Amino acid sequence: xxxxxxxxxxxxxxxxxxxxxxxxxxxxxxxARGEVTLRPTPGLSSVTTGLPGGNGALxxxxxxxxxxxxxxxxxxxxxxxxxSIGSVDATQPVSxxxxxxxxxxxxxxxxxxxxxxxxxxxxxxxAGYIYDGTTLTxxxxxxxxxxxxxxxxxxSNLADxxxxxxxxxxxxxxxxxxxxxxxxxxxxxxxxxxxxLEYWTPTTDADLPFQKSQGSEQERGCLSMQSVTGLDNTIxxxxxxxxxxxxxxxxxxRVSDHGIESAFEIESLANLTSARAFAYTQxxxxxxxxxxxxxxxxxxATISAQMGTSVWHRRTSDDGxxxxxxxxxxxxxxxxxxxxxxxxxxxxxxxxxxxxxxxWEFTIGPFAKDDESVSCSRVTLLCQTGSTTDLDADPQxxxxxxxxxxxxxxxxxxxxxxxxxxxxxxxxWRRNGDAPVSTGFTFKFHGERNYAFSALDVIAQIK
Length: 463
Prior knowledge:
Blueprint: E1 10-12, E2 16-21, E3 23-27, E4 36-40, E5 43-48, E6 56-61, E7 64-69, E8 72-76, E9 82-87, E10 94-98, E11 103-107, E12 110-114, E13 117-121, E14 127-131, E15 136-138, E16 152-157, E17 160-171, E18 179-185, E19 188-193, E20 197-202, E21 210-212, E22 229-231, E23 234-238, E24 244-248, E25 251-254, H1 258-265, H2 269-273, E26 276-282, E27 285-292, E28 295-300, H3 301-307, E29 312-317, E30 320-321, E31 326-330, E32 333-337, E33 343-347, E34 358-367, E35 373-384, E36 396-402, E37 410-416, E38 424-430, E39 434-436, E40 441-449, E41 454-462
Antiparallel strand pairs: 1-2, 2-34, 3-4, 5-33, 6-7, 7-8, 8-9, 10-11, 11-14, 12-13, 13-16, 14-15, 16-17, 18-19, 19-20, 20-21, 22-23, 23-24, 24-25, 26-27, 27-28, 28-29, 29-30, 31-32, 32-33, 34-40, 35-38, 35-39, 35-41, 36-37, 36-40
């Protein structure tokens, strides 16, 4: 029986015990060994190590990489050399936007740039800073709004983030509520309140530069300010009902599945409201990476479109969330920043995290037949490997079996994945016993990688 590999992460009582950790599924677009292959998530190489950590952000301004970490703004050149520029408040999350000559750093709340204006919103705006490529200064204009801005969005003077007027703001109209965030999409502004979503568009009226798009409001709020991000010509966010949505034709469309939503149901409200997301592309995959508490959930828009259903996987580092929590691209590379202040280069040709092996896992099941019991005489994993950097290394894979839908497991032992040069490997486990028809077999494969590794197929002799 061809079982295939895990098609993402989906854990739901009785129905499925499917996990996918530090691997992501890719569907074959032409003839292949299996319909879906599991590929390794990208590795990480440290670029900087001495930053203080804490609330942070990564941003590309005038083609250079900038980082806020632990209350300091740094520039980081292509060689990874960081230069301290100046201090910023680090008591709240940081948001960054830029025009051609100014980069604004907002502490608390959200800042975007649209139609020649900087726009800010938020419930706890602490301070704003302007960096002009040479000097970092705190915005000194007495009219610069701070504190709880409620349902209002404030906009700067034309193309100048240092100048503000007290009456230059507009508010959500249909169902006024506190704004969580706002973002620019296709030249329009999306306002995310605690209860609903609205679209606003630019105008040519200098006295009223934005107006609400009539009929665009949607009765779906946003739970987390930092969950809002753009990907694949749309916007993703964590809704007030603990469901992840993308915005399609003004409408929020559900992209999380029941397995993810069940996990969110038991998360604390504090973890959900502080959830943090970013989006990036890799090898044609469009990833939305959402960290909630100690777990990073990743939605793959590419394979979800191919499979016609939502496909997620998880990423972990040191038994916690994925190290990358903020993201930017510069110098032709992809960079991530973690909470400890390390800037990483994200590289699909690297299979470790700072030379440390990365744990991986996938689980498939349950599998049964319509009999009183089922037996499994053999399980075979087909994979690609054989490219360890250590020529004497002999990487291992372990298989565990559950006969009670993943509640308890017993190991069937480890198998060699082959030394360097053994690029295709078939490993098997025999005499796997019987399982009740009500639960069947569930198989878990796991190991640690510092090498290229892809899982192609699983075949089992189940009677």
